[in-house]
Amino acid sequence: MDLGKEGPLVHIGACLANLLSQGGEGRWRLRWRWLRYFNNDRDRRDLITCGASSGVCAAFRAPVGGVLFALEEVATWWRSALLWRTFFSTATVVVVLRGFIEVCRDGRCGMFGEGGLILFDVSDVTVRYHVGDLLPVTLVGVLGGVLGALYNHVLHQVLRLYNLINAKGRLAKLALALAVSVFTSAGLYLLPFAVPCTPCDPAFGDACPTVGKSGNFKQFNCPTGYYNDLASLLHATNVDATRNIFSTGTAGEFRLDSLLIFFGIYCVLGLFTFGIAVPSGLFLPIILMGSAYGRILALVLARFVRIDHGLYAVLGAAALMSGSMRMTVSLCVIFLELTNNLLLLPITMFVLLIAKTVGDAFNPSIYEIILDLKGLPFLEPKPETWMKDLAVGELAAAKPRVVTLQVIEKVSTVVEVLRSTPHNGFPVLDWPRPGVSELHGLVLRSHLMAVLKKRWFLTDKRRTEEWEARERFSSTELAEKSGSIDEVAVQLTPEELDMYIDLHPFTNTTPYTVVETMSVAKAVVLFRTCALRHMLIIPKFQGPEIAPIVGILTRQDLRAHNILGAFPHLANKRKVH
Amino acid sequence: MDLGKEGPLVHIGACLANLLSQGGEGRWRLRWRWLRYFNNDRDRRDLITCGASSGVCAAFRAPVGGVLFALEEVATWWRSALLWRTFFSTATVVVVLRGFIEVCRDGRCGMFGEGGLILFDVSDVTVRYHVGDLLPVTLVGVLGGVLGALYNHVLHQVLRLYNLINAKGRLAKLALALAVSVFTSAGLYLLPFAVPCTPCDPAFGDACPTVGKSGNFKQFNCPTGYYNDLASLLHATNVDATRNIFSTGTAGEFRLDSLLIFFGIYCVLGLFTFGIAVPSGLFLPIILMGSAYGRILALVLARFVRIDHGLYAVLGAAALMSGSMRMTVSLCVIFLELTNNLLLLPITMFVLLIAKTVGDAFNPSIYEIILDLKGLPFLEPKPETWMKDLAVGELAAAKPRVVTLQVIEKVSTVVEVLRSTPHNGFPVLDWPRPGVSELHGLVLRSHLMAVLKKRWFLTDKRRTEEWEARERFSSTELAEKSGSIDEVAVQLTPEELDMYIDLHPFTNTTPYTVVETMSVAKAVVLFRTCALRHMLIIPKFQGPEIAPIVGILTRQDLRAHNILGAFPHLANKRKVH
Q1: How close is the nearest chain A Cα to the Cα of B156, in Å?
Q2: For FRET with B340, which of A520, A537, B132, B425 sits at 20 to 30 Å CA-CA?
Q3: B519, A510: Cβ pair inside 8 Å?
C-alpha cells in the first residue's frame, strides 16, 4: 500500500515555490538577483499557489484539475492573472512529465510512466444509464456524503490524539510511525488468508492468476487456476488496485466479504496513517475506500438495479471524496482527467453535488479541520452568522490598546515600541496643525528595522524627502526579514537614541481602513478578497479630541475561533451556509 | 452556414436569470413571492453569472467549460459560493440535455442530439508527437496569436462602421442584415464551383460522394465517383464541417486552394456577420477558421513535419481562439469537452498560452473590444499603469461637487436633490455635537423614493427607530425600481414638503470608504474585488472645519476611458501587464 502522494507533492511544490520566492533575499541574494522580483508578499503568495497546483498536477497528471484545486481549496484570494499563471505552471509540469514518460516508455524507470498521462483509464467503458438510475445514484451520493462526514469526524479525533502523542517528543513520534507501519504490513499480509480462493474465469486464459508485480489476479495462497481477490486488491500498487476495482463487466470478480475487508482496512489505515511522521496524502486512500464502497453498494443493490459495478465504483469514489473534501468543480475535473471518460461527467457532477450538500450538513471539510488543528490563520470564505452582530470597533476594543507612532518619532520610542510588542505593522499619526489630526498611514516592522540598522537618524525634527530614502534603501533591503530588535538596539549609542526618525518615506499612506461600526462579517470578506495583512479601524465621529484611529486588526484577530475566545456568548449562533 | 450559437444562448441564459431575479418585484410580486430572495444586487449578479455559464454549457455541452468561462471572462467578481452555484446550474443543464438527447436518439428531433454530449469527438485519434514537434507547434501558436489579434482589429473597425449604420434607424439595420445574408448565401453557393472535383478514395465505398444532408463528401456539381471538397465544408452544418476538418488520417482529403477559399470566406463572413441584427456567436466561426488555418499550415509544412493534419486543425483552432479571445483555462476545458481527447491536453495548453501571449502584445481581447464599443462599464481586472499616478481625491475633485444629505433632512431638499441629480446613492452627514462631524453612511435613491411614496414624514426633527421603519417598509418595497421623481413629487402638498425625513433607518452606515490619497489603481482593484457600486472618498485630515467626505465614485468614474476624458495627459503611459 502506498500512502497517497498528493500530500507530499503539493507540499514540495509549495515549498519549492516559497524557497524560490525567498531566493532574492538572505544568503542567496548575490547569486539570484533576478529573484528579487518575487520579493514581495503578493508574488510570494502567487508562487505558492502555483506550486500547490503543480503538485496536484504532478500527483494526478491532472493539469486543469490542479489549477482548479488551487482555486477552490488553496487560495484565500484570487486575481485573474493568477489563473493563467497557475495554468502556465501546470502546463509546464505536464509537458515535462510527458517528456519523462516518453523517455521511460520501455520500462527503464521501474513503474514510472505506466498508464501514460491518464492514471485510471476507463475510457473504454460505454456508459449506459437512464433516468430510472437516478435513484440508486442519489443513494450513492447521500451515503457517500454521510460516510465522508463520518470519516472527517473520526480523522479529527485521531489527529487530536496524534497531536498529543507527537508533542511528547521525537521518540514518541518515531514509535507511533513504527507502530502504524508494523500494523499496516501485518494487516495487509495476513488479511488475504481470511478469504477463500476464487476460481479463475477461463476467458482470461493465462492472465489469471499472476504471481508478478502487476496484473489483475493475484494467486497468493491459492492453487493454480484460482486467485485470491483480496490479495489482488491489497498487494497491488494503488494505481493497479484502482484500475482493478474500476474495471467494468466484472461483477463477479470481487466477493462481498473481500470488499468489506478491503473497505474496512483502508478506513483504518487511511485514518491512522495520515497524521504520523510520514508523508502521505488523502486522495488515493479515499478513492480506494470510495470505490470499494461503491462496489459493495452495487453488490447489495444488484437485485434491483442493473448499473455496471465499475461505474458504481467510480461514483462511490467521487461521492466519498466529495463527502470528505467538499470540492466540486476541481474534483470533477480531477476525476475526468484520471478516468478519461467524458461521458461520466454529468452523473459524476450529480453525485458530487449531492455528497457535498449532505456532508456540509454535518461538519466542515477535511482541509478546514486540518488547517484548524494546525492553528493556521486560514480565513474561511463564508463568515459566520454571528459575525454580523459584532462591530470591528468592539473587536478592536477587546484587544490591547493600539500602539501608534508619530510621523517624526524619537529613536528611543521606536526601539521601545519594537521591543515591547511583536506587531508587524504600526499606525502612524500626525498633527499637522493644532486641532487637525491625520492618520498618516501604516509602517511595517521590517522597514523600521531597516532604518535602525542603517542608522538613518535626524538630529532635529525635519521632514525628509522620498528620494533621500530611495537613495539609501533598496527595495530588497526593505523587504528583508527583520531579525531581532535586541541585537540592533544594543549597538545604538545614547546620542543616537536621542535622535529622530522621519517615517514619511516609509509609511504606506493608503492602507485599507474601515469604519468602527462595520460588522466583522463584512470586514472578513474585505480582508479575504483584498488579501490584506492589516486593517485599520477608523472612528465613526470626527472631532478635535477624537484620535484618528481606533485600532488595527490582523488575520489572526478575524479568525472565528479567536473572536469566540473574547466573545464566548456569540458561540451559540449557527453558521451561514 | 450557421452563425455560431453561443452568443444567443449565453444571452438567453443571462436574460432568463435576470428575469428570474426580477420576478420578485413588479407585477409578478404576488405570484412569485419566493423569488424575493433573489431581490438584491448580489444575488442578481450571481444568477446572471449562472445563466451565462449555463448558456455556454448548452451551446458546447461543456459543463466544466461553462463554469470556467463564467469565471475567467464574464464575472468581474467572484466568491467561492459562486463556484459551486454555477457548477450546479451547468450540472442541471447537462442532465436535462442528456435527457433530451436520449429522447431524440432515433432522429425524432431533426439533427438535435447528433453526436451525443460530445460535439466534435476526436477521441479515436492516437496522438503521436515528440519533442521535435514542439517547433512547428510553436509556429502554430505564434501565427495563431497574430491572426487572432488581426481578427480582433478588423472586427473592431467593422463594428464601429456597423454602429454608424445601425444608428441610422431600423430600416438601415434591416437592409444591412439583408445585404449580409444575400452575400453569405451567394458566396456559399457559388464558391464551390471555383474548385475542381476530387476523385473519391475507393476505400470509402458508398460513403463518397453523398448528396444528402449529412456525410463527409458532397458530390455537388461533380460527376459520380468525384466529390467537391469545398462544398463538403461549406454545405454541411458547422458541426459536420468541424468534424470533417478535424478528422485524422485524411491528409489528401482537402486541397490547398479549397482550404484557402474556406478560410477566406469564413474570415469575411465571421467579420461581417457578428455585428448585424441577427443573433450570432464567435466560437464556431473562429473554430472553423482556425481549423482551416491549421490544415493550411499542415499542407505548407508537410515536407518538413510529420504531424497529422487533423491534429494541426485542432491546434490551429485552439490557437486562433486563444489569439482572439485570450482565455486560457476555460478554452482548454471547452476544447477538452468538445473533442474528448485528454491526450491532446498538454499540447493544447502549450499552444493556447503562446497564442494568448502573442495576441496580448497587440491588442485587448475581443470581449473587451465589444464591451468597450457597447459602452458597458466593465472594469478590467488589471488597472492601467497611469492609474498609479492619480489619487482618488483628484478624480473626485474633477467631478461636480458631491451632493450630500443630512441625516434628518427636509422633504423639499430631498425632492430637490433627487430632481437635480441622476445619482443612485447619496452620502449622509451628521453633526451630533458642535465641532464633531460624522459620515453617517450612504442612502440609495430607491430607498428615498420609497419613503417619498409612502409619505413617511415627521413634523419635527426627531429620530425614529429602526423597528418603526421595518414595520412600514418590506425589503421588497425598498428594492423596487424607483420610478420617476416628478410623478411622486407632484402629489406632495406644500405642508408635506415642509416636513422632515429621518434617514437613520435607511442609511447603510458602513459603506466602503477610501482615503483621498489612495491611488486610482488600488481603488479600482478594491472596487472590482468587492463588487462595489459606490465608493466614498474620505479626507486625509480631520479637523473642525473639514467636511467628513470628499466625494463619491462609481463604476463609471473608474473606467479608464472616462478618466482619460478628464485627465488626457495620462494617456501616454503604457498599460501594466
Answers
A1: 24
A2: B132
A3: yes
Of the listed ranges A11-20, A524-533, B405-414, B421-430, the one predicted with least confidence: A11-20
Asked if B349 and A542 come within 8 Å (Cβ–Cβ), the reply is no
Least confidently predicted of A262-271, A414-423, B135-144, B231-240: B231-240
Distances (CA, A) of B200 to A556, B203, B469: 73, 8, 81
Do B411 and B481 share a domain, yes or no? Answer: yes
A191 min Cα distance to partner chain B (Å): 38
Tell if the CB–CB gap between B83 and A71 is shorter than 8 Å. Answer: yes
Taking all residues of chain B, what is their mean pLDDT, rounded to a whole number?
A: 80
> Dihedrals φ, ψ of B567, to 5°?
-125, 70
Exposed (0-12), middle (13-18) or buried (19+): which is A471, by Cβ within 10 Å?
Answer: exposed
Q: What is the ipTM of this complex?
A: 0.74
Q: For the whole model, what pTM was predicted?
A: 0.78
Mutate to test the interface with B, among A135, A347, A349 (most CBs of B within 10 A): A349
Residue of chain A nearest B100, judged by CA positions? A131
CB atoms within 10 A of CB A35: 19
Give how many domains chain B has, as a whole number: 3
User: Residue A117: its chain B contacts at CB < 8 A?
Assistant: 342-343, 345-346
What does the pLDDT read at residue A250?
64
Pairing status of strand B513-515 against strand B534-538? parallel
B91 vs A343, A349, A381: nearest CB = A349
Residue A391 and residue A365 share a domain:
no
Q: Among the ranges A48-57, A75-84, B405-414, B476-485, which has the highest mean pLDDT value?
A: B405-414
Chain B nearest-CA distance from A84, in A, is: 6
Domain end marker among A374, A394, A411: A374
DSSP state of A200: P
**Is the model's pLDDT at B574 over the cut of 70?**
no
Q: How far apart are CA A534 and CA A402, in angstroms?
A: 12
Pick out chain A residues at pLDDT < 70. 1-40, 74-78, 107, 110-131, 203-207, 209-216, 238, 248-252, 279, 475-476, 479-482, 573-577
Smallest CA–CA distance, residue A337 to chain B, in Å, is 7
CATH number at residue A417: 3.10.580.10
pLDDT at residue B481 tops 70: no
Q: Which of A336, A435, A438 sits opposite B540 (nearest CB)?
A: A438
Q: How does DSSP assign A336-384, residue by residue?
A: HHHH--GGGHHHHHHHHHHHHHHHHTT---HHHHHHHHHT--PPPSSPP
Looking at residue A177, its amino acid is: A
**Cβ–Cβ below 8 Å for A510 and B510:** no
The residue type found at A516 is E
pLDDT of residue A33: 45
Residues B536 and B442: beta-carbon distance below 8 Å: yes
Q: Which domain holds residue A136?
A: 131-191+253-374
Option in A64, A91, A526 nearest B353 (CB): A91
Nearest CA-CA distance, residue B277 and chain A, Å: 32
Query: In 3D, which of A214, A261, A256, A264 has the Cα closest to residue A239?
Result: A214
Q: Is the pLDDT of residue B3 over 50?
A: no
The residue out of A351, A374, A397 marking a domain boundary is A374
Pick the closest to residue B287 from B329, B312, B316, B259 (CA basis): B316
- Decide: B145 and B359 in contact? Cβ < 8 Å: yes
**Is B227 part of a structural domain of the chain?**
no
Is the CB of B84 less than 8 angstroms away from the CB of A353?
Answer: yes
Residue in B350, B435, B518 closest to A95 by CB: B350
> E-strand spans in A100-255?
198-199, 226-227
Nearest to A517 among B79, B509, B529 (CB): B509
CA gap B63, B333 in Å, rounded: 9
Answer whether residue B361 is part of any domain.
yes
